[in-house]
Each structure stands twice: as structure tokens, then as C-alpha cells.
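Researcher: We plan to redesign the surface later, but first we want a full-length starting point. C-alpha cells attached.
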């Protein structure tokens, strides 16, 4: 009987992995986004975050929807995806345009038919109704009171034992808050301490998204590197050779009662 259940668990895990691989390779994704897979490692990252296809998942600040494409395909049958984008009525024109562009994208592709869009600074979902909250390369944009609000809302929305997954550009140790804001890189210690302050427990770290070529001392911060390449043609080959930023990948959980 024990052997039977072990086999059942093994094959169940195998099938889930196939579902995720299919979502990563889904032809409904934007063809331009596939080129970033080698830097962002979506299959390995979502596997590390223990995301299953039946979960209710909140993606914080999805931007143009790079990860949304994969999550939507993965959760489409038995799961739920909530995209917490910039506030709909923001007074900031850039944020408002970004939200409208995202909504246009998800309304034009059947891949996104089951996505619910909410405001980033809202309560996200009913208390303790969500299995996982994920954020990819966003902490540097939130440094300050906004990050407190977002982390608090994420904690409240998660079920006990729920997952909080963080990928972020990784600053060198001892980098000041001022330089974090300027460079777009955040120290690992700061990210961990901030999450723990809001009640999360660090479960594991991964070097899936590490890049030892990234010196983190670029003239335009992290935006010097691909895909932004803020210096345009100046030293472009040098920055393309480095690739995307060095990133921390952190798995937190909300403690069970």
C-alpha cells in the first residue's frame, strides 16, 4: 500500500511538471517573451515556489504580463489567477496607461479569460483565501510605505501555510536604501528582514536566477542591462554579454496556526 501511494505521488508530481512545462512553451505567449526565458527561468522558478495548477495565485504588479502569460496557462483549468496591477484610478499617468495596456492585452487573448484584475494597493482578495502571492522584480519600486501596505495585504490574503515568492534584483551587501532606490537593486538581507517584519517565515533561497557576471555598478543602474538597455547603443554589446541582472529568489510562507 505504501508503494502504491508513493507511485501515485510520483506520477502526480510528474503530470503537474508537464502542465507547467506546457505553460512555459505555450504558443499563445508573446513570441518576444520567449527570448527572456533563459534569464528568468520560469519553469525552475515556479517549481521552486511550489506552485500547483489548482492554486489561487496573486501576481503582484505584473507590468506587461511576462509571467502572467505563463501563470494564466498553468492555472487555466482548475486554478485562479489574480493580477494586482497599478491602481485603476491612479493620478500618475504612466501607471494608469500601464494598467490600461495590461487590460487590453488580457482582453485580446483567450489565454487570459479567467484572470481577475485588482488594484495593487487593495486587499487583493478575501482574507485567508489565497494559496500563493508572487512578485517578480518589483521590490525596488515599492521601497517605503507602499511596500509595507503591499506586504501586509499579501499576508492577510494568504491562507495559513500559504506561499510568498519573491524574485528581485540583488544588491551588494551594505547597499543603502538611497542607493537601492537609485540603482534598482535591493539587498537580500533587507528583503528578508522586511518580509519577516510582516510575519512571513523564510523557508528557502535559490540561486536559480543568479548572474555572477552582473557587477551591479552600471551608470543607469539595473536598467543599463537587458531588456531595458537604457544607454541604447552605447556599450550595448558589453551589457548584452552580461545579460539580465543578478537576482535573489526567496520562498517565504505564512505560518500555520
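Model: Full-length starting sequence:
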Amino acid at each position: 500500500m505504501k508503494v502504491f501511494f508513493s507511485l501515485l505521488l510520483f506520477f502526480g508530481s510528474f503530470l503537474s511538471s508537464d502542465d507547467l512545462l506546457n505553460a512555459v512553451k505555450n504558443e499563445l505567449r508573446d513570441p518576444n517573451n520567449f527570448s527572456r526565458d533563459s534569464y528568468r527561468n520560469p519553469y525552475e522558478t515556479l517549481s521552486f515556489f511550489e506552485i500547483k495548477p489548482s492554486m489561487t495565485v496573486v501576481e503582484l504588479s505584473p507590468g506587461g504580463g511576462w509571467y502572467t502569460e505563463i501563470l494564466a496557462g498553468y492555472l487555466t483549468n482548475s486554478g485562479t489567477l489574480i493580477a494586482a496591477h497599478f491602481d485603476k484610478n491612479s493620478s500618475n499617468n504612466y501607471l494608469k496607461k500601464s494598467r490600461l495596456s495590461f487590460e487590453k492585452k488580457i482582453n485580446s487573448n483567450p489565454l487570459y479569460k479567467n484572470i481577475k484584475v485588482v488594484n495593487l494597493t487593495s486587499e487583493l482578495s478575501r482574507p485567508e483565501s489565497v494559496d500563493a502571492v508572487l512578485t517578480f522584480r518589483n521590490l525596488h519600486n515599492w521601497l517605503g510605505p507602499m511596500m509595507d501596505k503591499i506586504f501586509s495585504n499579501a499576508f492577510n490574503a494568504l491562507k495559513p501555510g500559504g506561499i510568498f515568492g519573491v524574485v528581485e534584483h540583488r544588491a551588494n551587501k551594505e547597499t543603502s536604501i538611497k542607493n537601492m532606490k537609485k540603482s534598482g537593486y535591493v539587498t537580500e538581507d533587507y528583503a528578508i528582514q522586511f518580509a519577516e517584519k510582516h510575519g512571513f517565515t523564510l523557508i528557502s533561497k535559490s540561486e536559480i536566477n543568479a548572474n555572477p557576471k552582473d557587477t551591479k555598478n552600471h551608470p543607469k543602474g539595473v536598467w543599463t542591462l537587458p531588456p531595458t538597455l537604457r544607454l541604447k547603443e552605447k556599450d550595448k554589446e558589453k551589457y548584452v554579454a552580461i545579460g539580465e541582472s543578478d537576482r535573489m529568489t526567496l520562498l517565504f510562507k505564512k505560518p500555520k496556526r
